[in-house]
């Protein structure tokens, strides 16, 4: 790629990442082109459709996330640190409000993001299970539920101390995923009562 083409692509990515974060998935493509200082045809030469642009924006976030999670690879609690990071990023990016529009308009990108999250958390989850910190029957694809629950719990601070609110939510949730005969008995009793 020529240097000037790379500069335009970098500006497009910076603009797309910023505007997706601030305005959501359905920000007008023209606005992204204008923010990057390029024409709409230039945007389409690099990204033929919104799906391609969305995939590129998600890749930026996933590369950053994967790099951060890799720093905790040798820690038994790295899985929990990654969950808190993902919940914090979900809140900071307004991700809770973006999930439904993304699912409707770019389901392939949403699925790609889910797969990337699972891939990034597979090692930390296995390590946490080996250390006895997470039940053996906890499935990798359940991490998405946990992340959304923690992000929802983080909203309980109303923006005052999101980190502490997420920490409290994780502490409460761990009672449900920790290997414990008592918690299993409670769940089984509740299932029988239904």
Compact summary:
The chain has 194 residues and is mainly alpha-helical.
- CATH superfamily of the largest domain, by name, is Tetracycline Repressor, domain 2
Q: Supply the CATH architecture of the largest domain.
A: Orthogonal Bundle
What kind of oligomer do you see?
Answer: single chain
Radius of gyration: 20 Å
The first-level CATH class name of the largest domain:
Mainly Alpha
Listing every helix as H and every strand as E from the N terminus to the C terminus, the arrangement reads HHHHHHHHHH
Helix and strand arrangement:
Elements: H1 3-23, H2 29-36, H3 40-46, H4 50-70, H5 78-92, H6 95-105, H7 107-130, H8 143-154, H9 162-177, H10 181-193
Label this structure with key terms:
194 residues; mainly alpha; Arc Repressor Mutant, subunit A; Tetracycline Repressor, domain 2; 10 helices
How would you describe the overall organization of this protein?
The structure is a single chain. The chain is an all-alpha fold and 194 residues long. The chain folds into 2 domains: 1-48, Homeodomain-like (Arc Repressor Mutant, subunit A, Orthogonal Bundle); 55-193, Tetracycline Repressor, domain 2 (Orthogonal Bundle). It has 10 helices and no strands. The longest helix has 24 residues, at 107-130. The model has no long low-confidence stretch (mean pLDDT 81).
